[in-house]
Amino acid sequence: MIRFVLRWIDLPPMWLALFGGLAWGQARWLPVFRFGGWADALGAVLIGAGLLIGVAAVAQFLGNRTTVIPRRTPGTLVRGGIYRLTRNPIYLGDALILGGLILRWDAGLSLVLIPAFMALIEKRFIRGEEVRIRQEFGAAFDSYAARVRRWL
Q: pLDDT, tens digit, for every residue of 105-119?
């Protein structure tokens, strides 16, 4: 039971929620400065873009009948649509959402959380996923990875 709970907690949306919570806490308890109205607008755009990118990526996975669950071996190598621009659009969308929240909350000190979040996601999820995908699809994945960057 504990193992199941820990595996459920160790999913990218939970890490996004944790990092978002840290940014919110910083804005609330350690407000340093206000970005201004431009940050609200840019933050909303980033959040919207992150959501759209994530939904588009999940839709492509579902349309190709492959898993969106990290640490599971995919049944199909998805290379079209949003996956022509980035190998990890869901994680990119999460990073955009985090950045948007930080701007909207005027959590300037928390901007360092964006690269920290990306590094954690890469270490905990992306590297292992790429090993499984390479084992499953071999040269096809290598060719794809040579053309399409991990983030952007």
A: 999 999 999 999 999
